[in-house]
Amino acid sequence: xxxxxxxxxxxxxxxxMIELAEDHSDGIYKELMIHLKxxxxxxxxxxxxxxxxxxxxxKKTRCDVTFIYNKTLSDGIELGKRMR
Length: 84
What we know:
Layout: H1 2-24, H2 26-42, H3 47-83
Helix pairs in contact: 1-3, 2-3
């Protein structure tokens, strides 16, 4: 019962966590974009590759948040069970 309720709450908050993580790493993202822009300007034939790199950075952020959020939630549930 508790796990089901926590899953609903986790799903509701997940997008908020993604947004917080993206805000937190915004400086790194901007730095990456500066470097990718330089590459695009010097090597226009690499535009598709630089776009792919940007997409991978965004996917990695989402993947990391998904893993950490779910792992933390799971660990919290287990801790709660042990404390009973």
